[in-house]
Amino acid sequence: MKMRNRFNQLYRIGFEVTKAMLWAICIVLIMKSALVEANQIVSGSMRPTLKDGDFVLVNKLEYGIHIPFLAEMFYIWSEPKRGDVVTFTPPMTDENGKARLFIKRIIALPGDVVMIRDSILFINHKPVNSVKINAGTFIETIGEKVFSVTKKDDHANFGPVTVPVGYVFVMGDNRDNSHDSRNWGPLPISRIEGRAAMIYFTKKTLLEGDLDIRRIGSLL
């Protein structure tokens, strides 16, 4: 009888511990899907702002509420701003039929006209403020954001394109090496995962010659 009671007691304890662990896992998954997420950069399309191997924190509540595990926001409460760096799933899939997570900068908002002439970016027919730092590197100002871009092709041209209502136009800071809205069109705001807020870690090492610890903690 004592053995049975002991067994039942251990069973109840095990059940409660397992239930608590499952609840904790569910809470973490929901927070990861709907609140904040850590993403690793796996391409060079946002250089020099972000480098492959960087890790960024993404605020998923910046623009609206996400349904856990789905690609789109079901309620949007804040419009993105020009210059914001955002993560999203684009309106197309890769060669394996999967939607990859992208990270780019918002260049233009609904109603804006986007155009590039001889590598100069125009928003609403006005050139974006751009200062050359050295060969291929420029400092641009869009909205309240001041950031570096890389441009190698002095004769790049695009547009003009008018951004529809409910969409934004995104581009990589590595302008000549980025698959973005110039390739597949404006991005639906509902497909934005969140705003990339900060670089919190990088996998780059001294041996790779690309480590700058001053970038860790940088706001985007």
How would you portray this structure in words?
Residues 22-34 have low confidence and may be disordered. A seven-stranded antiparallel beta sheet has the order 1-2-16-5-6-14-15. A four-stranded antiparallel beta sheet has the order 9-8-7-13, with no helix packed on it. The chain is α+β, with helices and mostly antiparallel strands. It contains two helices and 16 strands. It starts with a helix and ends in an 18-residue tail after the last strand. The protein has two domains: 1-34; 36-215, Umud Fragment, subunit A.
Brief synopsis:
This protein is α+β, with helices and mostly antiparallel strands.
Which terms summarize this structure?
single chain; 220 residues; Umud Fragment, subunit A; four-stranded antiparallel β-sheet; 2 helices; 16 strands
What is the count of distinct domains?
2
Which overall shape is indicated by the principal axes computed on the Cα atoms? globular
How many helices does DSSP assign? Answer: 2
SSE run? HEEEEEEEEEEEEEEHEE
Q: Helical content, roughly?
A: 10-25%
Assess the beta-strand content as a share of residues. 35-45%
Relevant CATH superfamily of the largest domain: Umud Fragment, subunit A
Our Rg estimate from Cα atoms comes to 22 Å
The averaged pLDDT comes out at 79
Number of β-strand runs: 16
Distance between the termini: 65 Å
Write the CATH architecture name of the largest domain: Ribbon
Oligomer: single chain
Spatial arrangement of strands, main beta sheet: 1-2-16-5-6-14-15
